C-alpha cells in the first residue's frame, strides 16, 4: 500500500474482530461433506457404516484415492448412527480404513466409485472384530488434578482408563491422609480437616496410579465491614461476599447470608430478593446492626446500616472506566479494577449491582462499600461482559465492559523442549518432512532420556528411542542447550492424517509420568508438538467463515438491523502483534457511501441477516500467511476484536487470522451496544 491516506468525515471507525478459532482440516473433495451439499459436480456420496463396537459413533474414518497420480486423503467421523459421509469424485477405487482401536482388528475395504442408473450414493460397511479376549489397561488419569475444599465440602473425582475399551475398568481409591480428606469406593472426596492430601486411584489391572492433590482450607477470621449509609425510601444492595482470612495464609471472598437486627421489629425495614437487598421505608431512620452467616465457618459478619434523612440523588448517567479489558491467567495479571463514574456527583449508588455474564471465565472478586469500584478476576480462558445495573423492574443496565481472559504469554517454563530446524533455534510448528525435525532441549538436567513420538489420542507410539542429554552453553548466555534429530533417534512413522499433531515426549522415566517433580518443580515429562505437511499456495474465500453476534443482556443472538449490512474486511501484509493501524486500509468513501479499499484488502463482505458474512468476489485468492479481520461498526458499538484470543497462549489478538493449507477458518465476532453517542 502506498502512502498513509486520511479518512474522510464520512468514514466510520473500523474495529478489529475477536477470533474464536475452530480448526477443521478438509480436503477439496471433503468440504462438500462438511457443508452438506448434494452429490452434483462429479461427486459421489459414500456412506461408510461402522459395526461391531459397543459405541459406533465418533470413530475416525480415512478414505484414500489416487487422483491424477497423487494420493488424496479424505477424513470423516461417524455420527450417532455409526455412519460417516464422504463426498468423493467419481471414478477409480477408494480405500476406506477405520480408526485403530485396541483389542480389535482394524477393518478396511475397497469401494469402486461408479454411478449406477443415476444413483449418486454408494454404501460400505466396516466391521470391527475382537482380536483379543482381554484388553489390558495401559494407563489411568484422574480429573481434576487438584482441588481446594473447605471442611465438609465434597468433590467427585473421575478416572479415564487407557485404552477406553480396556477389559477391566475397576479402580481402587485411597487417601494418604484420611484425617484431612477421605475418599469412598466411587471416588467421592470429603474434606475433614485443614491440610493437604493425595487421593490416588489404582487400577485393578496392572496397579497403575494417578492422583489428585486436595487442599482443605480453613477460615481463621472474618474481615470487618465498613458501615453503609442510606436514606429512607431506598433499596440498599447488601454485600454478597465478605473477605475472610485463611489459616494457611491468603484470603477468600465467602458468601454471606444476612439476618435482620433486633431493632428491626419496630422499624419499616425488610430483607428482599434472597436477603441481598434491604428495603428502607420512608420512616426508617437510625442505625441497624445486621448479622451475616458466613459460609464454611461459624464466625459471623457484622454490618452497620446508618439511615438518615439526607436527600437521595438518582443516577442520571454512569460510565465505566473501560469498554474492553484483557486479563491473563498464569502470573499476576489476572485481576483489574473497574471504576464507575456517576452523574450528578453524590448520586445514590447504594443499590448498584455488579454482574458477570460468564463466571466460569470472569468473576466479581470484590466491590467497594460505595459500589463504585469493583475488582474483577479472570479464572479461566474465555469472554464475559461485566455489567453495572440498577435493581429496577426490569433491571436497568448503566454500562458494560467486555473482558477477555487468555493464558499469560509471559509465562515460560524454566526448562523445556522445542521442535526446530537444524540451523535455526526458532520454534517450528509445521515441517515439510520428518527428517527436518530437530528437538532442542533447554536447561534439561543431564541424564538418560526416553523418547516417544505419538499421535494425539492414540496409545501406540509412532516411534521410540533414547538419548543422553549433555547440555552445553554454546552461546555463552547461561542457557544449557542440547540438539538431536528426532527421526534419526526414533525412526517415527507418519500417520495418514496430514492434519494430525505429532507429540514428542521426553522423560528419564520410561512410563512418561505427568505432573511436576516435587523437588525441582520441573515437568516429569517434557512435551512439544508439531505437524508434518506441505502447504498449498492458496485458499478459496468459501473456506473463511465469519459469524457476527450481538450481545444483549449478557446473551448472544442474531445481529440487529444496525449491524446487518455493515462491511467486513480481510487485509493482507500484517505484522502480527502490531496490527493496530487498521484505519490505513481504507482510503475514502466512494459512490453511495461505499468504502474504497487499498490493494492490501484481499476480501470484503457484509453482515447478512443470519449473522454470517457474505463475501464479495475477491480480486485474487488468499495466500498462506497472516491476515487481519476488520469490521465497520455503527456509532455506540464495540467488538471483541482487539482482545486477546482465549484459545491461544501467545497473547495474539482475536482479529489476527492465519491461513494454512486447505484449513477453513472460523471466527465469531461479538459486538455490544454501548449506547448512542
What is the strand and helix layout of this fold?
Elements: E1 14-16, H1 31-35, E2 43-51, E3 60-67, E4 70-77, E5 83-89, E6 93-98, E7 104-105, E8 108-112, E9 121-127, E10 129-130, E11 139-143, E12 146-150, E13 154-156, E14 158-162, E15 171-175, E16 181-183, E17 188-191, E18 195-203, E19 209-217, E20 219-222, E21 228-230, E22 235-237, E23 241-246, E24 251-259, E25 269-272, E26 277-280, E27 286-294, E28 300-307, E29 317-320, E30 324-329, E31 335-343, E32 353-356, E33 362-367, E34 373-378, E35 382-390, E36 396-407, E37 416-420, E38 430-431, E39 438-442, E40 447-455, E41 463-469, E42 481-485, H2 486-490, E43 502-507, E44 526-532, E45 538-539, E46 544-552, E47 555-557, E48 567-571, E49 586-589, E50 595-597, E51 601-607, E52 613-615, E53 622-623, E54 625-632, E55 637-639, E56 656-659, E57 665-673
Parallel strand pairs: 2-9, 12-19, 21-28, 30-36, 38-44, 46-57
Antiparallel strand pairs: 1-54, 2-5, 3-4, 3-6, 6-8, 7-10, 11-14, 13-17, 15-18, 16-17, 18-19, 20-23, 22-26, 23-24, 24-27, 25-26, 27-28, 29-31, 31-34, 32-35, 33-34, 35-36, 37-39, 39-42, 40-41, 40-43, 43-44, 45-53, 46-47, 48-51, 48-54, 49-50, 51-52, 54-56, 55-57
Amino acid at each position: 500500500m502506498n502512502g498513509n491516506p486520511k479518512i474522510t468525515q464520512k468514514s466510520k471507525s473500523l474495529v478489529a474482530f475477536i477470533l474464536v478459532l475452530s480448526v477443521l482440516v478438509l480436503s477439496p473433495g471433503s468440504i462438500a461433506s462438511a457443508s452438506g451439499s448434494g452429490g452434483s459436480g462429479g461427486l459421489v456420496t459414500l456412506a461408510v457404516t461402522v459395526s461391531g463396537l459397543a459405541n459406533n459413533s465418533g470413530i475416525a474414518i480415512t478414505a484414500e484415492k489416487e487422483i491424477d497420480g497423487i494420493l488424496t486423503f479424505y477424513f470423516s467421523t461417524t455420527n450417532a448412527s455409526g455412519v460417516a459421509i464422504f463426498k468423493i469424485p467419481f471414478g477409480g477405487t477408494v480405500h476406506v480404513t477405520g480408526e485403530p482401536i485396541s483389542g480389535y482388528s482394524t477393518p478396511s475395504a475397497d469401494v469402486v466409485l461408479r454411478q449406477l442408473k443415476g444413483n449418486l450414493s454408494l454404501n460400505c460397511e466396516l466391521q470391527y472384530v475382537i482380536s483379543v479376549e482381554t484388553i489390558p489397561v495401559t494407563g489411568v488419569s484422574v480429573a481434576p488434578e487438584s482441588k481446594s475444599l473447605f471442611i465438609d465440602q465434597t468433590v467427585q473425582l473421575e478416572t479415564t482408563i487407557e485404552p477406553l475399551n480396556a477389559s477391566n475398568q475397576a479402580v481402587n481409591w485411597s487417601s494418604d491422609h484420611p484425617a484431612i480428606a477421605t475418599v469412598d469406593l466411587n471416588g467421592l472426596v470429603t474434606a475433614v480437616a485443614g491440610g493437604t492430601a493425595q487421593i490416588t486411584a489404582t487400577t485393578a489391572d496392572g496397579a497403575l496410579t494417578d492422583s489428585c492433590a486436595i487442599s482443605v482450607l480453613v477460615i481463621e477470621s472474618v474481615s470487618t465491614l465498613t458501615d453503609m449509609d442510606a436514606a429512607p425510601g431506598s433499596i440498599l444492595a447488601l454485600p454478597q461476599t465478605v473477605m475472610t482470612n485463611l489459616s494457611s495464609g491468603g484470603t477468600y471472598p465467602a458468601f454471606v447470608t444476612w439476618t435482620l437486627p433486633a431493632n428491626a421489629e419496630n422499624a419499616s425495614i425488610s430483607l428482599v430478593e434472597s436477603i441481598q437487598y434491604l428495603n428502607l421505608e420512608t420512616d426508617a431512620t437510625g442505625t441497624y446492626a445486621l448479622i451475616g452467616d458466613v459460609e464454611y465457618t461459624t464466625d459471623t459478619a457484622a454490618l452497620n446500616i446508618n439511615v438518615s434523612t439526607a436527600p437521595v440523588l438518582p443516577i442520571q448517567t454512569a460510565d465505566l472506566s473501560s469498554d474492553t479489558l484483557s486479563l491473563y491467567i498464569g502470573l499476576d495479571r489476572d485481576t483489574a479494577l473497574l471504576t464507575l463514574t456517576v452523574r450528578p456527583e453524590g448520586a445514590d449508588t447504594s443499590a448498584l449491582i455488579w454482574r458477570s455474564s460468564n463466571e466460569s471465565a470472569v468473576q466479581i472478586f470484590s466491590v467497594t462499600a460505595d459500589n463504585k469500584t469493583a475488582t474483577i478476576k479472570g479464572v479461566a480462558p474465555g469472554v464475559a461482559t461485566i455489567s453495572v445495573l440498577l435493581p429496577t423492574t426490569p433491571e436497568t443496565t448503566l454500562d458494560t465492559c467486555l473482558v477477555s481472559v487468555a493464558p499469560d504469554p509471559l509465562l515460560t517454563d524454566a526448562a523445556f523442549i522445542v521442535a526446530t530446524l537444524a540451523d535455526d533455534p526458532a520454534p517450528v510448528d509445521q515441517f515439510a518432512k520428518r527428517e527436518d525435525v530437530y528437538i532442542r532441549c533447554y536447561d534439561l538436567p543431564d541424564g538418560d532420556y526416553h523418547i516417544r513420538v505419538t499421535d494425539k489420542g492414540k496409545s501406540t507410539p509412532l516411534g521410540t528411542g533414547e538419548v543422553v542429554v549433555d547440555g552445553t552453553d554454546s552461546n555463552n548466555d547461561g542457557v544449557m542447550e542440547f540438539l538431536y534429530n528426532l527421526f534419526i533417534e526414533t525412526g517415527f512413522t507418519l500417520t495418514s492424517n496430514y492434519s494430525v499433531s505429532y507429540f514428542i515426549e521426553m522423560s528419564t522415566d520410561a512410563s512418561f509420568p505427568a505432573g511436576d517433580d516435587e523437588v525441582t518443580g520441573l515437568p516429569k515429562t517434557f512435551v512439544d508438538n508439531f505437524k508434518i505437511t506441505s502447504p498449498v499456495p492458496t485458499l478459496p474465500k468459501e473456506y473463511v467463515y465469519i459469524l457476527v453476534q450481538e450481545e444483549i443482556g449478557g446473551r448472544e443472538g442474531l445481529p440487529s438491523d444496525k449491524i446487518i449490512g455493515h462491511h467486513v474486511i480481510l487485509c493482507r501484509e500484517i505484522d502480527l502483534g502490531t496490527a493496530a493501524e487498521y484505519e490505513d486500509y481504507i482510503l475514502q468513501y466512494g459512490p453511495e457511501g461505499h468504502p474504497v479499499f487499498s490493494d492490501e484488502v484481499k476480501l470484503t463482505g457484509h453482515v447478512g441477516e443470519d449473522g454470517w458474512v457474505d463475501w464479495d468476489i475477491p480480486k485474487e485468492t488468499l495466500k498462506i500467511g497472516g491476515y487481519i479481520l476488520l469490521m465497520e461498526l455503527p456509532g455506540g458499538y464495540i467488538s471483541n476484536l482487539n482482545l486477546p484470543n482465549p484459545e491461544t497462549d501467545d497473547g495474539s489478538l482475536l482479529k489476527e487470522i492465519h491461513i494454512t493449507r486447505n484449513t477453513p477458518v472460523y471466527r465469531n465476532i461479538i459486538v455490544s451496544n454501548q449506547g448512542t453517542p
